[in-house]
Design a protein that fits this description.
Elements (H helix, E strand, L loop, with lengths): L13 E3 L8 E4 L5 E9 L6 H18 L3 E11 L6 H18 L2 E9 L4 E10 L15 E4 L5 H9 L5 H11 L4 H9 L4 E4 L4 H13 L2 E5 L9 H6 L5 H9 L4 E2 L5 H8 L7 E5 L4 H10 L5 E7 L5 E4 L1
Parallel strand pairs: 4-5, 9-13, 10-13
Antiparallel strand pairs: 1-2, 2-3, 3-6, 4-6, 7-11, 7-12, 8-11, 9-12
Helix pairs in contact: 1-2, 3-4
Length: 319
């Protein structure tokens, strides 16, 4: 969800609202069931319309997983200019989304289309979660370890694609990661007793980590050498293939991130706006072995990239 100021809400059934800029809202239905609701809409990040639809769906579903929930239903939103995008191509976008929803066990129940000069597609997704198993982005504790479950670089790869400079290997890799569901990683985190979780999307790794720090009133230390990147990313940065959103994120986080002696080029991937990025998972030291064992058993990629600290609300990037 977008980071908007929380208005006064008197409904005690609203368990998670907008105050901590979490991934989805959570509303209590019964003692054992809460609704998890989100909406996410993106512009094309790949040329193939079917892949785009699939990625957009995976991206939207990720918000439900990041709260520890299970998606149930979805509503689609598609904006396009009929003169520029033939109906069959628009249908392919929906076909890709339906394929992703089918894999997730989520049912498309309707949607809306409108004419717009820029293609946009996304989903409003509703899921459920047991109230005792909700994982928010604000529950981290001092000393918790931080895990990332996908390498960074999708924003840079998409920018290089638009600039007709993307290597085939990077495009293939980025597409594969964007089409990878976060369901297995999220289930592993819940099973291991994760204290906090969020997915890495438009605000980049550092932006979403900053939200976790603010929510928990903690700081964080990152081991720069442990943060995974997709192939060819440094080459793309050197060629100027950096999305404008990365520079927006740098400005937004000014004063909160202590960059040390790291050159700007090395840090840009940490600000890179991701589409369908991985999860950031916080887990206490005593549960690290359990988390890694479960992630391995589910064939989930992961890297331990840092820890939360009680020293300040800043993010320190170490070598």
């Amino acid at each position: 969800m977008a980071p908007i100021q929380e208005r006064a809400v008197s409904d005690p059934r609203l368990l998670v609202g907008t105050r901590t800029s979490d991934d989805a809202g959570v509303y209590l239905l019964t003692e054992d069931t809460a609704l998890v609701q989100t909406v996410d809409i993106i512009t094309p990040v790949v040329d193939d319309p079917c892949d785009f639809g699939f990625i957009a769906a995976v991206n939207a579903l990720s918000d439900i997983y990041a709260m520890g929930g299970r998606p149930l239903t979805a509503l689609s939103f598609l904006a396009f200019e009929p003169c520029d995008l033939p109906n069959e191509k628009a249908s392919e976008i929906l076909t890709g989304a339906l394929a992703a929803l089918g894999e997730a066990g989520c049912t498309l129940v309707g949607g809306h289309t409108l004419e717009d000069p820029e293609i946009k597609f996304g989903l409003a997704v509703t899921g459920t979660v047991h109230p005792d198993r909700i994982v928010t982005n604000a529950g981290a504790r001092d000393g918790d370890l931080i895990y990332l479950t996908k390498p960074l670089g999708t924003g840079i790869a998409s920018t290089a694609l638009k600039g007709e400079m993307v290597p085939d290997a990077l495009l293939t890799e980025a597409t594969l990661w964007m089409k990878t569901f976060n369901s297995e990683a999220a289930q592993a985190a819940v099973e291991a007793g994760a204290t906090a979780m969020t997915d890495v999307t438009g605000f980049g790794l550092l932006g979403h980590l900053a939200e976790m720090c603010r929510g928990a009133a903690l700081g964080a230390e990152l081991d720069h050498s442990s943060i995974p990147l997709m192939g060819n990313i440094p080459e793309m940065i050197n060629s100027g293939m950096v999305p404008a959103g990365a520079y927006d994120n740098i400005k937004f986080l000014d004063g909160m991130v202590y960059r040390g002696d790291h050159p700007d080029d090395l840090l840009i991937p940490l600000y890179d706006p991701q589409t369908s990025g991985g999860l950031l998972i916080s887990v206490e030291p005593g549960r690290v072995e359990s988390l890694e064992k479960i992630l391995d058993s589910r064939n989930v990629f992961f890297s331990r990239i840092g820890k939360f600290t009680g020293k300040s609300k800043s993010i320190n990037i170490l070598s």
